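As a warm-up, study this chain.
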Amino acid sequence: MEKKQFQAESKRLLEMMINSIYTQKEIFLRELISNASDAIDKIYYKALTDESLVFDKDSYYIKVIADKKNRTLTIRDTGIGMTKEELENHLGVIAKSGSLAFKKENETKDGHAIIGQFGVGFYSAFMVADVVTVISKALNGDSAYKWESSGADGYTIEPCEKETVGTDVILKIKENTEEESFDEFLEEYRLRAIIKKYSDFIRYPIKMDVTGRRLKEGSDNEYEEYQEEQRINSMVPIWRKNKSELTDEDYENFYAEKHYGFDKPLAHVHINADGAVSYQAILFIPESIPFDYYTREYEKGLELYANGVLIMNKCADLLPDHFSFVKGMVDSESLSLNISREMLQHDRQLKLIAKNIASKIKSQLQSLLKNEREKYEQFYKSFGRQLKFGVYSDFGSHKDVLQDLLMFYSSKEKKLVTLDEYVARMPEEQKYIYYASGESNERIEKLPQTELVAEKGYEILYFTDDIDEFAIKMLQKYKDKEFRSVSSGDLGIEADDSQSADEAENSENKELFDYMTSLLAGKVKKVKASRRLKSHPVCLSTEGEVTIEMEKILNAMPNNPNVKADKVLEINVQHDVFQSLKDAYEKDKEKLNLYTALLYNQALLIEGLPVEDPVEFTNDICKIMV
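Now compare it with the structure written out below.
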């Protein structure tokens, strides 16, 4: 019997395969089962045009047989089988897929699609087997043939006996090494787990002899083991069923079975797209945030199937970062995969699916916001921060997609509101969308800077997330209305006469304010009269793009960039404290120095900024008490 050599390219590829193109050795079973499914599909295709063939689906199956004693694993199918020539052509030349050629010759639109367009899959068997034997008898063939190979050295083909049409792929499983255990691929529980993971939705039954326990006949407490043949796979995936057949409970059960989360999903989207690219998908909006969601360890992505066979556990390319909380799966026949099936080629089809999925997610979130507000707010409390990151990231390229999904706490409504709701309530004369930043709603409520805006009856949005201001700076405006911080130098509220009064106050007290500014040199840009303050004596405002909250956030980062806001100390000239400042300026500069330091430190405390010298601050307080 002559040993034949693989072609040179095939030999090199086989050596790569054995040393592993695939990331996990368990993949071999997925590949061999997919090939077996293809072989049955081929009989189905032939039956469509050959009247002498009757396709009785109950007669076709795949069986996985583990023999621990002889260390063999057999994958048996009742498919179309292979002739001697086909064994030679399909198994002697790696990456030449008989399934792909067959598919091109027998295209049909009835939903039966052949998986095996990746000709290298069969050779993944050599990752776990010392010897691979293929015994096959072709449909309408007179003889059976045996193909056998120990790897890159070559293969043999010879006649053999086989009564039924179909193929047996027999793997002589490798012995364990110090580094790796191959015994697992002979264990019933492990094989079942691999089949359920990757091949649960193969359309033909995948059978195994499963071990059970039962009471011995005539005994009350003595058990015996027995074996019975069982179907391991569920065969019909939920996403291929009509939506009208499915209930919310069906989707929730699927969510739990796939271990997408321990919670119940707030909503689901079931997509069945047939166009430029065909695919099915089920997407879930989770209720609760995963414990590691905002960590580097969190992996986004959807499960990806190719015609019902799991290809990737987490396909990150199918989800934009701002929707990374979405769980679910996509099944498509249209995607191009590389040699190992585990890496997608970045092609047009993938981008089309990803674009469509992003659009569907946004539509579902908008629907929740409009029709099930309580559910949306529950979602937003978990994942709203991620939407804000999405507005800020990639230089604001997603802001138009996300702006209508944002919510902030409202000073008037005392609850979360959308930007659209805020703008719809704005009085005609109101120029800006006002916001205030702070550590909590309670802290913001007490900020002196909110007094003037609140007195005018204008609504204020409360920003308590560290990303809020950065996102809004990127957004810049909403429906042509600019955002303006209550701490901003220009609130757009003061009438002309108020501005004139401000100028007069600043002019009249220029020497006092200049003196206080010199005392606070390097700490504030200037000291000036305030019109925003009503009951409070002092506050800090800012000039420029960097606000005080942004300064706090940036300087809390590990690589402290030491960014500083241009602070302005504003004094309420209507407050009794101001008269004390004027008197001190005229009569007691030392007291004025003390008052200036105290007011500055009070303003810092109001903003939640650290007092630069706590000991000096407490000593200053003691000085005014004696």
